[in-house]
Design goal:
By secondary structure, this protein is α/β, with parallel strands linked by helices. It contains 14 helices and twelve strands. Helix 12 links the parallel strand 8 and strand 9.
């Protein structure tokens, strides 16, 4: 909270004064009403987040019938997600956007089979105004639940189609996974690398892993299957996958790794095996999570995607509700550092 409020709870008037707009304009932004210019909406939401302004929820609910809460549902164990900087960055974007709408995030985790029924009851019970679904697996019953809910739903990543699906019924936001992977592998080819391997993610999640593998195959359609190793988006998974690749293909001279976290593990294995990076093996990651990519040895060349922006866009779509539900693709670009 900024000092001008002197420790008191910030008010609607404080937001209006800081934003340079009227109180009625701030109120329209908070309630998601149309006819407010996009740049004004963005400014007011930023000020709300900066001041930590919280609307009077009781009064708002009487008018809007809204709870002021949005569920973030993650179908992975809590301990794993909170160690993943990607999820941390994504959640930060969701929470910042929600703050601009006077809403807060409620985290729901699917650790155990019984959690599905509990989460389904909660989402269908009028406790939240919308839901962001993260890292869902095909066959997950939340796909079916999303079709029945009366609240807006946005997926992180394009959900894999189920049997009989012809289109996606819900909005989703994703990075340009295939295009980013193509950039990475083309860069390795341009540097004269000829035995380029890849560590791919698990195919049982949203199709980002499949898309990144497809980008690799776009550039290297004739790459032998032994140059591909599947892992699980963890650092240890990347380390194990790199070890398996070196065992099968000791002559490889480059590797495109489908996440920065796995790339950090791959670098650890290469160092342990006495391989110099990039002299012996060039390494490229994906995500450009700077807590990883700028701290590895050497610093990691990687595909940048704006993860926080992805989170903000997901939350924004819950309130904007365009029809038909959109598929938003966030651009990616290669950031060249010392590893390739």
């Amino acid at each position: 909270m900024t000092s001008h409020t002197h420790g008191r709870r910030p008010t609607l008037e404080d937001v209006a004064r800081r934003s340079g707009v009227s109180k009625s304009t701030v109120s329209r932004v908070i309630n998601g009403e149309p006819k407010v210019r996009a740049e004004v909406v963005e400014l007011v939401r930023e000020v709300i987040a900066e001041l930590g302004y919280v609307p009077n929820q009781a009064a708002r609910q009487l008018v809007t019938r809204r709870t002021g809460a949005v569920a973030v549902v993650a179908s992975q164990p809590q301990n794993r997600l909170f160690l993943d900087p990607f999820f941390d960055c994504l959640l930060r974007g969701v929470r910042r956007e929600l703050a601009g709408h006077g809403a807060q995030a409620v985290l729901l985790f699917l650790d155990e089979p019984d959690d599905h029924a509990r989460v389904a009851d909660y989402l269908g019970g009028g406790h939240v105004d919308g839901a962001v679904l993260f890292s869902l697996r095909p066959g997950d019953r939340l796909h079916e639940l999303a079709d029945r809910l009366d609240i807006p739903v946005v997926f992180c990543g394009r959900p894999l189609p189920r049997d009989g699906d012809t289109a996606h019924a819900h909005a989703h936001v994703d990075g340009d996974n295939r295009g980013g992977a193509r950039q990475a592998v083309q860069h390795l080819v341009s540097r004269g690398r000829t035995r380029i391997a890849t560590v791919t993610g698990p195919y049982d999640q949203e199709d980002s892993a499949a898309e990144r593998l497809a980008g690799y195959q776009d550039v290297l359609p004739d790459a032998p299957p032994e140059l591909t190793e599947r892992a699980d988006y963890t650092e240890q998974g990347g380390a194990d996958a790199m070890a398996a690749l070196l065992d099968r293909c000791p002559g490889l001279d480059a590797v495109f790794v489908a996440s920065d976290l796995m790339a950090a593990g791959a670098l650890r294995t290469l160092r342990a095996c006495g391989r110099r990076v990039p002299e012996d093996v060039a390494v490229i990651g994906f995500d450009d999570l700077t807590s990883i990519s700028e701290s590895t040895d050497p610093p990691l060349t990687t595909v940048h995607q704006d993860v926080e922006r992805t989170g903000r866009l997901m939350a924004r779509l819950l309130f904007d509700r365009p029809a038909p539900p959109p598929s938003v693709v966030v651009p990616t670009r290669l950031v060249v550092r010392a590893s390739a």
